[in-house]
Amino acid sequence: MRLIHSADWQLGKPFGRMPVDARAALSEARLDAIDTLAAAARQHRAGHVLVAGDVFDSAEPGDRIYRQALARMKAAAGVRWWLLPGNHDPLRPDGLWSRLSAEAPENVAACLTPAPVMLGEDAVLLPAPLTHKFSLSDPTAWFDGAETPAGLPRIGLAHGAIRTFGGDEQTNLIAPDRARRAGLSYLALGDWHGLRKIDGHTYYSGTPEPDDFGREATGLALLVDVAGAGLEPQVEALPIGRHAWVEERWHLSGAEDVAPRIAALAPGIERKHLVARLHLSGLVPLAERVTLRRLLEDGLAHEIRWLDLDLADLMTRPTETDLSEIDAHGELRDAAERLRAMAEDGGTEGRLAGAALERLYVELMRAQRGSEA
Amino acid sequence: MRIRRLSIENFRKFRAPVVLDGFSDGLNLVCEPNESGKSTVLEALRAALFERYNSKSGRIRSFRPHGDDVAPTVTVEFEVAGGRWQMAKRFLQGPSVTLDGPDGRFTAEAAEEKLQALLGFNRAGNSGADDDSRGALGLLWVEQGQSFQLGSPAETARRTLEEALASEVGAVTGGRRAKAVQQQVEKALADFYTATGKPTGRLKQAQDAAAASRERASACAQELMQFDEVLKRLETKRNEQRRLVRDIEDPEADKELKALDADIERARRAADALRMADLTCRSATADREALDKRAEVRAGLRAALLKAETAARAALENLNAHAERLAQARRADQAAAEALDTARMQLRQAEELQDKAQAARRSAADRQQLATAFARLDRANGLAAEIARIEARIAGSRMDEAADARLRKLEAAVIATRATLDAGAASLSVTLQPGAAITLDGAPLESGTQISLTRDARIDIPGVGTLAFRPPAGSDASLARHRAASDDLAAFLAAVGHADPAAAHAAARARTQDETARAALRSRLEAECPADPALGLPAGLDALRGALAGRDRPEPLAPDAPQPPAEIDLRPFRTAEIEATARRQAALDSLQKAEVRGVELQGASDRAEGDRLRLAQELAADLAPLPDADLEARQAAARADEARALVDRETAGRAAKALDVEALHQQRERMVKKRERLQADLPNLAGEVARLEEQARTLGGEGPGQRAEAAREEAEAAEATHARLKDEGDALALLLGVLREAQQDAARRYLRPITRRMEPFVRRLLPNASLAFTEDYKPGLLMRGGREEAAELLSKGTQEQLAVLTRIAFADLLIDKGKPASLVLDDALVFSDDDRFEVMTDILADAARRMQVIILSCRASAYRTVDATRLPLG
């Protein structure tokens, strides 16, 4: 019994903070992941793709996303899709899932009932659909007592956090030893956007198309070979995602540090598929700050899909050179000194003064360039 | 620079050459009245230096005296930088310029250029010189009405000043770079904030975009909430519908309904059974009561019979006892009857005798009476005959009272007419000889006759002849009346049948007498015929006659006739009879009572016997079909039946009570109603569900969840953009502010030479005050008593004074730096009060020690005390 375990497609995720084109590309990539998954299933001769919840980003994703998803799944001949409502798209009466189960193509099954269902002829699927964004009870609790034909492997499909994750997660908690307790050959989990192995029978596949920073292993799907009841399955991660989301912290001492770091950023990843968040820190001269900003904002930002630049911790220290570049004396120098003094006082006003000083510098350079030209 | 000599010709009002000569180094005063051409002098001086000789501009042409095509010409002799120069400039006609000085002679453009270089001004433009081209001297040579202007110097003048301030300016300003940066920043800021600090341009757009996206996000969230509402509602409705259908199709309810129907049937049957048991019970009770009644009746019969028998016996005894009393009474009655008979017989006899005697007496009386009546009749008849006779006479006489009266009237008329006639008639007295027989109209005339002749008369005297008389004609009428009266009388008499009136009168008297007699007779007759009750007669003759008509006149009684018998005393007989009658009556009463009593007793006896018989019969009849023993047996059976029926009814009652058919019916009704109601609700609910489903489908298709999320994120992004832009704008604003502050500080610094020079002047004019310049050399703020006042808000007088002082300071600065400078004031200080004017002239006099000062004024008296070189005009 071979299947592909995926989860957290979150189709229709808006990426509202990004520019419109990045938004469209990232959104489209999530739909494209369906095609990639289908291709992977065909390639590895996996007849079933289990999607462990959060197929859609919201319970009401809109007709375009909905139709696109169905059309793409339908197009994947020979693959049977098993979709589970997650906390993003919980099962609600008369909601998305009611529509979907009525309109879905033949090869798409919505798992809306917590009851065993035959997964082809060789296994039994125990789905745990979520009916609310948050629920305090373990949706997989019923697996333990579920009666299934003897001899067939039991495969669980659920969405939620494992109790041992700790942190703030207090809802949709799934017992970490559910697979053992319920005699599951495999428990396909969703919710955690990165790949995560809980035990030999329990995995989070993560989302097939990365959608946030800070995930170690993401953009994958799991190819699972269920050997039989009681035996550990063979699990292999397949790369599916298109975009890489990279978050880095660069401590800089000068503009000269930037170029090599840019060059070394996300090796092996096409720039156009890179989404980066850079937290810059350090104390740099005014002129270098202007330079490095130009390098990042006018260079890298346009090369990659989206750059989220965080300069909050990049401190500027106008040097004597900076100031003398502004003017040896005279009113501009005077203004620069004043701003530097204000910036050193810190606070909101200081931050503003720093920005003003940087602007003064930039404007001076510009004026100079203008006069030179 | 010092002006030494000025010659003006064909310039405005000066057609003839005017020469101002002998300008001293210090204070020069040209004091002339208005209209004498002081301002023209300054104009000519400025034209000569600053205007190009070959210019043909309007202003140049306006220099020509009105209507003359002459060439305005100005010659100026001046000293500058230690050399003495003479410049002659001719405009318009044969324009020329020559400049002679230590460096030689210059003409035309070369002269102009040399002049510009010497005095530090610029070549005038095509339209003539302006403030900018005139340079510093233009600023210091103040035309009439310009002295109080606090404006900033024009560019050339400023540059000259800056050159004078060069070292300082260079040290403190950023020069053109600073200006360019400031302009850049201003331009950049203009895309964020307006001059008054309101968001505009990009910032405004971002702000608006943030607000709009916030609104959109809130609208989307609202939509999502609505959608959630719809889903929730749909779920509720659907659950409702499910419950409803379940309730409608509830098999339990069916079962319950069926059970209810069965219960109702059972209850109905129980009720029927109870009704039957009740009927049976009532019937058993009735049977038992009937038998009880019969037994009771039978006992009553028996008692009544016993009583009747006793009564019958008593009645018979009473009857028998009464028979003896009755016989006695009969006997007593018999005896009394006989005694009565005797008494009655005796009485009858006595009465008969009495009757006979009475009849005899009555007969005698009747006879007497009749005889009297007849006697009266006889008298009455006599009277009646007499009356008849008299009445016959009365009837024969026509002379009744009325006729008599008539007669008297007629007679009176005759007499009256006669008298009339006689009065007019011839009176004829006849006296005849005895025997003579004459006739009058045939009637013999007696002697002694007195005749009145009233008519034609003829007297025949036999033998003699005839005498005819004719009364006079007037007597005819009287005669006629007389005749008529006489005729009437005669006619009356004839009618009454009397020959003459006397007879008639007699007849009337006779008749009256007869009537009197008749009345007397009638009274007598009436007295004779009284009513006679004894005979039953009414009054009147006819009655009497009638009563007696059939009666015979009794014979007169013979004197010997026996006397009628005397009356018998009947009273003893009568008394005896009455007593006997009373006794008989008493006996009869007793008998009657006894008989009544006997009848009563007989009746009682009969009745008692009848009762006894009837009762005996009834008892027998009652007993015949049902002897006592049978009755008792039946009574016992009936009682047993009744007891059984009561028990049955009690049982049935309990059964019926256990199943309240009414309550069961109500319960069933409720269930049926509920089901009907549920069924009625179902379509509405289904419709609502369908509507909500459609709504959910439509709303869901729009993807409210995703839209809400996207809108929220976009709003956050827009907010962030706005914040970023605001930061940028704020940084720009801060930068601009700092730049301006720095610039002001710099200006203050490089203007210090000017302010320093100004200070003593200002202090002299306004104690404890100081003046600050703006960076463009304009008096900006006046500080006094710790207060700052904008210079352009000061009084016109003060402004002018400050303007003049500023120019002194500028001139001082220029002279210090070896640049040409002199001060010319035309009609300045006109707004100054006397004290200020004095201070100002002192300052000017003081300045004149350092520079040439030329004052053009119309106020000779004001400058009288001023120590100056006075130059006459002309």
UniProtKB/TrEMBL annotation, chain A:
Coiled coil: none annotated. The keyword Transport does not apply. Pfam families: Metallophos. Signal peptide: none annotated. The keyword Manganese does not apply. Residues 1-107 form the Calcineurin-like phosphoesterase domain. Keywords: Exonuclease, Hydrolase, Nuclease. One of its GO terms (molecular function) is exonuclease activity. This is Exonuclease.
From TrEMBL, chain B:
One of its GO terms (biological process) is double-strand break repair. Residues 5-267 form the Rad50/SbcC-type AAA domain. The keyword Transmembrane helix does not apply. InterPro entries: P-loop_NTPase, Rad50/SbcC_AAA. Keywords: Coiled coil. GO terms for molecular function: ATP hydrolysis activity. Residues 224-277, 312-370, 661-728 form a coiled coil. It comes from the Bacteria. This is Putative GTP-binding protein. It comes from Azorhizobium caulinodans (strain ATCC 43989 / DSM 5975 / JCM 20966 / LMG 6465 / NBRC 14845 / NCIMB 13405 / ORS 571).
